[in-house]
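ugh finaly. both done.
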Amino acid sequence: QVQLVESGGGLVQAGGSLRLSCAASGRTFTDYPMGWFRQAPGKEREFVAAVGRSTSNTYYADSVKGRFTISRDIAKNTVYLQMNSLKPEDTAVYYCAASRVLSAILNSPPTVGSWGQGTQVTVSS
């Protein structure tokens, strides 16, 4: 089991940027596949982005392609989500996730073993 702590959320105007961080800890490998999900009030939790054990192996939801970038620093056990050109519809609680296999994150519905507590992102118009 991996413990995950998100940070970096906040309030930003439309068109602005934020960078979320997720620090992982626990007795596990440092290169677990990791991902980001988000959930708005009254909505189901949805996939946003994922990165595999290779930092170049990335996946994105269609709604964020070209605007968001996921990356990781394996040495620091940290994954990042750089969010640019933010829109009001990006407003949600963003959750970090980790699993032994990438398919657990990419499958619908996901079968993720570890979740963070979430960080609020609010985009004003």
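ok and the 2nd:
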Amino acid sequence: QVQLVESGGGSVQAGGSLRLSCVASGLTYRLNCMGWFRQAPGKEREGVAVLSIERGSQTYTDSVKGRFTVSHDNAKNTVYLQMDSLKPEDTAMYYCAAAANTWYGACVGNNWPARVNFGYWGQGTQVTVSS
């Protein structure tokens, strides 16, 4: 069993920064693909960033490239999403997700959300960016 617990959300003004954390516990040794998603009211869930924990490779959706960075600390079983230069359109509920036994190319390749079975999800943390 795997549990994901997210934290770090909050309210900031445009241009500000937040760092989200996702702590994984339980049987985590097979997890090798970690994703961050977000969903705003009335909108579809969107893949934001993904990380191959084996290689450290990352993929980002175009709207956050250059502003968001995903990283991990294996010793702490924690994945981070550093969000800089936040914009009002970044306002959403942010979710951490994890996949086990995932092919590297599927994890960080093009169209990665559809090619990965994210079987574990966090509870979400709200990010609100004001103009």
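summary for the 2nd one i guess: The CA atoms of residues 31 and 62 lie 25 Å apart.
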